[in-house]
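Aim 2 progress update. The chain analyzed this quarter is reproduced below.
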Amino acid sequence: MKRIYSWEPWFFILFGLFHMHRIWALIDRKAYASFWMGIMENKGFLYFLIMGILAVLCVVGIITFIRERKANYHWRWIYLFGGVYVLFDLFAIAVGIEGWEKLLAIMFDTHSPYWNYIWGFFILLGMAVFILGIVLMVRKKKAW
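Predicted structure tokens:
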């Protein structure tokens, strides 16, 4: 029997908000790039807090996907593909994989003509995931 766990809408709402915060990148490129590059380079408390929360959420999502494999909703594939991507991203940043660092440098190049496309994509992704969270919350409440 398929069911939506109580935490699942909040999972998508939080990930959506995290991605939508990138509106800041469209408003103030330099401040946004400086903040996130500083976080990634310094690897201080805030870095480990954010990365830890993201990692735990991804692991929980992947475990849920695997546990519910016989009765999965189609949207749970996000846990698998998105979770694996985010975990790889966190790993690559943490260990300093050279190619990944170059990719991040390109992404955070405030003079790039692709800046708005890159961060606009993440904002749209965040909006979609946020909406999914709201839809799941409504479905969960209707099921009660």
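The mean pLDDT is 94. DSSP finds seven helices and no strands in the chain. These observations will guide the mutagenesis experiments scheduled for the next reporting period.
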